[in-house]
Amino acid sequence: VSVQQGFISTISGLLTAIEMVLGIIVFSLAMLWLTRGAVLFLILISFTFWVMSFLILVSSAFSATGTLLPTTLFYMVFHCTAFLFYLSGGVSTIISSYHGVTIAAGVLGLVASVFHLIHTGFAYKKKI
Length: 128
Known about the structure:
Layout (H helix, E strand, L loop, with lengths): L10 H22 L5 H24 L11 H24 L3 H28 L1
Helix pairs in contact: 1-2, 1-4, 2-3, 3-4
Keywords: Membrane, Transmembrane, Transmembrane helix
GO cellular component, one term: membrane
Subcellular location: Membrane
């Protein structure tokens, strides 16, 4: 089994790693004050997208064509969807929360959405 370091050493690979870490932090903060509604939505979003980011990193590391991943339509749609969901989850959590921990999770959700938006731009640029 050979490990390819081509993808992780690119800007897309670095952004994917940052998005995964942000997702884990958002998930951990939101789980501290588990409620219904917006916080639960943010928990589900962060879990889904950090696991997907992890799977993207692993599959690109063990694939000979890992550097081609940012040129796929799936990659662009993934980051565009993550941007929209993190944006809606972050805003709704900030609006509906009164606890500092969940507000921090919402703010970090917005930060994650910005990273996914930037990543969408990079994916679109590679697609052209």
